Amino acid sequence: MSQTFKTNVNATFDFEINKDAVSNLDVIQISDSKQHVIHQNTSYHIEILESDFNNKFYQIKVNNTLYEVSIFNDLDILINDMGFSVSASKQVNFIKAPMPGLILDLRAQVNQEVKENDTLIILEAMKMENMITSPRDGIIKSIAVKQGDAVEKNQLLIEFE
């Protein structure tokens, strides 16, 4: 069974792309973000400038022309048709310890405004430093630990307003 994706380019053009057709392209990976593609005897130099997998948005350059591309599968379209957002904002109100460990550093303060993916806590576990990041934009309501505390798995660390 072949999977089809709905694609919007530059908020103007809509295309359907078949997964089998994409897998049959002649692609040479040049680097993490650059590829060389040959399609129907035509050569294309492609560079991925920005990728937001959660929002299914990509900014790419093809032969020095910039394109903004959104890609949706059947589930994304169904969710959208039902009135839900594929990239609905996260309503996480607290952060718990993902594992037992030692609080090495607190990089957040009560009433501080934080952005998604800001580092809030560094937790040492099994001789590794783990950065605990903010799951969403918000304001810190309370911090239940302090530097040097030993924590257990699922122990409350931070609460958001």
- The number of distinct β-strands equals 15
User: Roughly how many Å is the radius of gyration?
Assistant: 22 Å
Structural class computed from helices and strand pairing: mainly beta
Question: How many distinct folded domains?
Answer: 2
Given as residue ranges, the uncertain stretches (5+ residues, pLDDT < 50) are none
Spatial order of strands in the largest sheet: 2-1-7-6-5-4-3
Distance between the termini: 46 Å
Strand content: over 45%
- Mass-distribution shape: elongated
Count of helical regions: 2
Portion in helices: under 10%
Give the biggest sheet: 7 strands, antiparallel
Helix and strand pattern = EEHEEEEEHEEEEEEEE
Kindly report the average pLDDT value. 87
Pfam families: Biotin_lipoyl
Protein name: Acetyl-CoA carboxylase biotin carboxyl carrier protein subunit
InterPro entries: Biotin_BS, Biotin_Carboxyl_Carrier/Decarb, Biotin_lipoyl, Single_hybrid_motif
Keywords: Biotin
Spell out the blueprint of helices and strands.
Elements: E1 4-9, E2 13-18, H1 19-23, E3 26-29, E4 34-39, E5 42-52, E6 57-62, E7 65-72, H2 74-81, E8 94-96, E9 101-106, E10 113-114, E11 119-125, E12 128-133, E13 138-143, E14 150-151, E15 156-160
Antiparallel strand pairs: 1-2, 1-7, 3-4, 4-5, 5-6, 6-7, 8-15, 9-11, 9-14, 10-13, 11-12, 13-15
Observed structural traits:
4-stranded antiparallel β-sheet; 7-stranded antiparallel β-sheet; 2 domains; 161 residues; mainly beta; OB fold (Dihydrolipoamide Acetyltransferase, E2P)
